[in-house]
């Protein structure tokens, strides 16, 4: 028997919603730093559409004793305070499952980028640990953490901000999250690996500043050509490192292909 798929009244976004839903849990001393950005705009819509389920866990609830202590001084001396292992272990025990991938936000981690966002958007369950003060006891990392990720070479006061940035980049890649007004396909670091071309909206002329003619002419082939060349030019000017990365990865691919043929 052959299927007539047109009989099924399912739109692609509905199918996506059925199959792609990511559970996100954040362990933090500052739930409000997560709740507001994740409860706003597209992140809020992603939850309403059930593309994600978000859990925000207040580390203080797992603190020790009457004062719910979560931190202590570093062994061996040194500045500042560290997050103690017991509250973090208890918090992780309460949310982690076999399917969890546990991420520590940390300036010592590998740099978070668009490729990492794509990879993590395919996971079933992500848990973000947000550090505070001088960071977390190493035993938490050794026992629980699958990967440490950094936003860049600078130090933030708190990991919740980093977790929100990472979650935003991941969630917008999930099918059905972005509406028709946005697209995660043709944008910077997308399929071409380049920056997006400059963009304009109406009016065509404003205070003597004009939109390039080609964008107003309606010739889609010309517009695509213009965008491709502008994207290349803008990348060359603003992020030449991206072009270098592209060249070295294609050199690597041709050398791999050459070895395969020779072998
Ligand atoms: C003040 S920082 C700790 C810095 C740590 N003592 C060090 O020198 O590496 C407190 C927390 O903020 C988060 N954080 C700071 N900078 C970050 C970055 N660049 N990327 C991701 N998370 C960061 C981490 O969760 C970290 O544990």
Question: Care to describe what's here?
Answer:
With 263 residues, this protein is α/β, with parallel strands linked by helices. It is 40% helix and 16% strand. The protein has two domains: 11-171, Alpha/beta knot (3-Layer(aba) Sandwich); 205-262, no CATH class. The model is unreliable at 1-19 (pLDDT under 50). The chain is globular, with a radius of gyration of 23 Å. The chain has helices at residues 12-19, 31-38, 41-48, 85-95, 114-120, 138-144, 159-171, 220-238, 240-262; strands at residues 22-28, 52-58, 71-72, 82-83, 100-111, 125-129, 147-150, 205-206, 209-210. Bound molecules: S-adenosylmethionine. The site of S-adenosylmethionine has 19 residues, from β5 and α7. S-adenosylmethionine (SAM) is lined by residues 105-108, 130-132, 134-135, 150-152, 154-159, 162.
Care to count the β-strands? 9
Which whole number gives the mean pLDDT?
90
Can you name the CATH architecture of the largest domain? 3-Layer(aba) Sandwich
Fraction of residues in helices? 25-40%
- What Rg do the Cα atoms give? 23 Å
Count of helical stretches: 9
Physical arrangement of strands within the biggest beta sheet: 2-1-6-5-7
Strand-residue proportion: 15-25%
- In quaternary terms, these chains amount to single chain
Gross geometry: globular
| Secondary-structure element pattern, one letter each | HEHHEEEHEHEHEHEEHH
User: What is the count of structural domains?
Assistant: 2
Structural class, please? alpha/beta
Per CATH, the class of the largest domain reads: Alpha Beta
Q: Which fold name corresponds to the CATH topology of the largest domain?
A: Alpha/beta knot
Distance between the termini: 46 Å
């Amino acid at each position: 028997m052959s299927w007539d798929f047109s009989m099924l009244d399912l739109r692609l976004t509905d199918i996506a919603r059925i199959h792609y839903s990511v559970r996100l849990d954040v362990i933090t001393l500052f739930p409000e730093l997560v709740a507001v950005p994740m409860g706003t705009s597209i992140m809020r819509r992603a939850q309403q559409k059930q593309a994600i389920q978000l859990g925000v866990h207040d580390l203080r609830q797992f603190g020790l004793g009457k004062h719910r202590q979560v931190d202590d001084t570093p062994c061996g001396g040194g500045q500042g305070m560290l997050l103690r292992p017991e509250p973090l272990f208890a918090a992780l025990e309460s949310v982690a499952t076999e399917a969890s991938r546990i991420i520590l936000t940390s300036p010592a981690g590998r740099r978070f980028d668009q490729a990492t966002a794509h990879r993590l958007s395919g996971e079933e369950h992500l848990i973000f640990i947000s550090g505070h003060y001088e960071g977390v006891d190493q035993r938490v990392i050794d026992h629980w953490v699958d990967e440490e990720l950094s936003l860049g070479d600078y130090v933030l006061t708190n990991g919740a901000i980093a977790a929100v940035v990472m979650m935003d980049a991941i969630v917008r890649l999930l099918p059905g999250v972005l509406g028709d007004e946005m697209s995660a396909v043709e944008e910077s670091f997308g399929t071409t690996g380049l920056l997006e071309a400059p963009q304009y909206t109406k009016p065509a002329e404003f205070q003597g500043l004009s939109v390039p003619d080609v964008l107003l002419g309606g010739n889609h082939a010309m517009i695509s050509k213009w965008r491709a060349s502008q994207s290349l030019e803008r990348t060359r000017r603003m992020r030449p490192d991206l072009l270098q990365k592209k060249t070295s990865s294609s050199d690597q691919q041709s050398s791999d292909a050459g070895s395969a043929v020779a072998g």
